[in-house]
Specification:
The protein has a single domain, classed as TolB, C-terminal domain (Neuraminidase). The protein is built from 1 helix and 25 strands. It starts with a helix and ends with a strand.
């Protein structure tokens, strides 16, 4: 059992919107999912396994979607936050992961390496699939994708997904139409773009941009214009989620030597950075919908 003193060290007193927060942290060498309630109580959601990460809350805030290696390769599960019961969603012998909910909670987009051989090292090749009401997954991408490049976000209308592909000598964001698999370039520029995230209501996309000095977090409008830096400095910043009111973007930060992670967030209007959780390699923070 983790002590209350550990939780005091682990979790900051403040967070945007005073909303509940889901995040990943490493404790005694194992990766667990944690829930910090709006009142500040912290719960380990996966105490028995310790091989979970990449959690995304259902739009209604009552369950989460996540990936787990408890059975070897990455598989996808849904967990009810009321009873913590796991429901398997995609359990192929190859990698199934990076899953995200449709805005209305009826579909799941995810990356899968099924039908591909694992390379000796580096990103895993695969495709983006769509899962609807427990049916067999449907392949959406027509050209293979790498596991680090998506899917990263649904459009607010639920008609497309953001993915990243190489374009020249850098990465660009593409809209993937889920109806026909067609891909549309979001913006053509010399700025590297990956990990794109649509805001909930506002017409913005946050994204990661790899620079010579490290990864930065940027934001632009949904037409791919008016790009500006949100977070930069020593180390590497990677965006993960927008806050419920679209005023903040959660980020995982790594120092230049990559020896630990911190969960941070940046204020979109001012660029103010707040460290939410500094200990235990806290990362991948996402807020739950308000009840």
């Amino acid at each position: 059992m983790l002590s209350f003193a550990f939780f005091l060290l682990l979790v900051a007193d403040w967070q945007p919107d005073q909303a509940a927060l889901i995040f990943t942290a490493t404790v005694q060498g194992k990766n667990h999912l944690f829930l910090r309630s709006a009142s500040g109580e912290v719960t380990n959601l996966t105490p028995e396994s310790g091989k979970e990460n990449w959690a995304h809350p259902h739009p209604n805030g009552q369950s989460i979607l996540f990936q787990s290696q408890r059975d070897g390769s990455y598989d996808l599960f849904q967990m009810s936050l009321s009873d913590r019961h796991w429901i398997p969603l995609a359990t192929h012998t190859r990698h199934d992961g990076l899953a995200i909910w449709h805005p209305n909670g009826t579909q799941i987009a995810f990356f899968s390496a099924r039908d591909f051989e694992y390379p000796p090292q580096g990103p895993i090749p695969g495709h983006v699939y769509l899962l609807t009401n427990g049916e067999n997954p449907k392949q959406i991408t027509q050209t293979r994708l790498e596991s680090t490049l998506g899917p990263s976000s649904w459009s607010p209308d639920g008609k497309s997904l953001l993915i990243s592909r190489s374009s020249g000598n850098h990465l660009e964001l593409f809209q993937l139409n889920i109806a026909n698999g067609q891909e549309k370039l979001v913006s053509a520029s010399e700025i590297s773009k990956s990990s794109g995230l649509y805001a909930h209501q506002q017409p913005y996309i946050a994204f990661s941009s790899e620079q010579d000095t490290g990864a930065e977090v940027w934001v632009m409008d949904t037409q791919g214009q008016n790009a500006r830096v949100l977070a930069k400095g020593e180390g590497h910043y990677y965006p993960y989620a927008w806050s419920p009111n679209d005023e903040w973007v959660s980020m995982t930060w790594y120092p230049s030597d990559w020896n630990h992670a911190e969960l941070q967030c940046v204020h979109v209007a001012t660029g103010k950075i707040v460290v939410l959780i500094q200990e235990n390699n806290a990362r991948e923070g996402n807020w739950l919908a308000q009840p």
